[in-house]
Amino acid sequence: MLDSDVVVRSLLIPINEGQLLIPGAVVAEVTNYKEPQPLIGSFPQWFFGILLWRNQHVPVISIEEFLTIGATSPVQKSTRLIVLYGLESSQNMPFYAFVAADIPRTLPVKDVMLSNAQKSEKEGLEFNVDVIEHGQALLPDFSSLENMIRKLQLASSS
């Protein structure tokens, strides 16, 4: 575990079936929802299309459908896109995004705030954890997410 004095600035991101806890350092931007452009071809249901963001073609996914934990919430005024930095292969995929059900909340996290961490068996998910005073949260596996998006070979499609 972390030293109890270390604080990780994080975001609690509401999704249809719960919430994600992710470090703020991986988030490039939280933006209003814009409909991604669908691509021609056969793609998994969790892949929504491409968003033109800051002159970049950014793949957009449904994190719930990718993790097989439910369907994405219907789009509402509060729906957001969470644009993440590509960590594994930043030259090939500098950014990717997922749909959030509502506006994320910032949360400075210390290790004493986390309990009952359970390693997940689901692809794309590292842990389920209880966040004191905030309920259960899912911690995504960014490597797995990025690898699955990269396997779609979107570069030739966009």
In CATH, the topology is named OB fold (Dihydrolipoamide Acetyltransferase, E2P)
CATH structural class: Mainly Beta
For the record, what is the CATH homologous superfamily label?
CheA-289, Domain 4
Mass-distribution shape: globular
SSE series: EEEEEHEEEEEEH
- Give the domain tally: 1
Going across the major beta sheet, what is the strand order? 3-6-7-5-4
By CATH, the architecture is named Beta Barrel
Please tag this protein with its features.
OB fold (Dihydrolipoamide Acetyltransferase, E2P), mainly beta, 5-stranded mixed β-sheet, globular, 44% strand, 158 residues, 11 strands
Describe the structure.
With 158 residues, the protein is mostly beta strands. The chain has a single domain, classed as CheA-289, Domain 4 (OB fold (Dihydrolipoamide Acetyltransferase, E2P)). Helices cover 9% and strands 44% of the residues. A five-stranded mixed beta sheet has the order 3-6-7-5-4. Strands 2-1-8 form a three-stranded antiparallel beta sheet, with no helix packed on it. Strands 9-10-11 form a three-stranded antiparallel beta sheet. A hairpin with a 2-residue loop joins β4 and β5. The model has no long low-confidence stretch (mean pLDDT 87).
